[in-house]
Design brief:
A hairpin with a 7-residue loop joins strand 5 and strand 6. By secondary structure, the chain is mainly beta. The protein has helices at 37-40, 126-129, and strands at 16-18, 23-26, 44-47, 57-60, 64-65, 73-80, 92-99, 105-107, 133-136.
Length: 159
């Protein structure tokens, strides 16, 4: 009489991979950005001792705003890989920083000459000299240009 033995062979070795490096990407002129792997990087060297054709996947956490900077965020991208036997590689996190590197724009008022009064006083307020206009930025809203006056003495007294 024969006895039947069942031998079960299991793969218990997790696959491995290398997640893309942390990266900084920049917003475009409309404050948009592309989180596609063409821009942010792809996993390299997905491999397993038994399974072939493995493809790592990722899940992005919600963007976290960088304080004080409209249009600037960080995103934690968690990469995962599972082989066909259900063995799970350790997750790897890629940090994606999104920054606005487009400078704001504005129009300065035209150069102006103002005159002193009888007491040699003058009014250099923006009501008289003009205010900045057309403040704009691709990511920030409600921006306001500022200024600082530098008085340079002229060649005659009172100027």
């Amino acid at each position: 009489m024969f006895s039947i033995f069942i031998i079960t062979i299991l793969d218990t070795i997790a696959p491995f991979f290398t997640a893309p490096e942390d990266i900084t990407i920049y917003t475009d002129e409309n404050c948009n950005y592309d989180l596609g792997t063409t821009e942010t990087g792809k996993v390299t060297d997905e491999a397993d001792n038994c399974s072939t054709g493995l493809i790592a996947t990722f899940v992005d956490a919600d963007p976290v705003a960088i304080d004080g900077c409209d249009g600037a965020f960080t995103i934690a991208r968690t990469w995962s890989l599972v082989d066909k036997c259900g063995n799970i590689a350790a997750d790897q996190i890629q940090t994606i920083s999104i920054l606005d590197n487009t400078a704001p724009t504005f129009s300065a008022p035209d150069d102006i000459t103002i005159y002193t009064d009888i007491d040699c006083d003058y009014d250099a307020s923006i009501t008289i000299t003009g205010d900045v206009t057309n403040e704009a930025d691709n990511c920030s809203t409600n921006i306001e240009a500022g200024f600082a006056d530098v008085v340079i003495d002229g060649s005659c007294e009172g100027t």
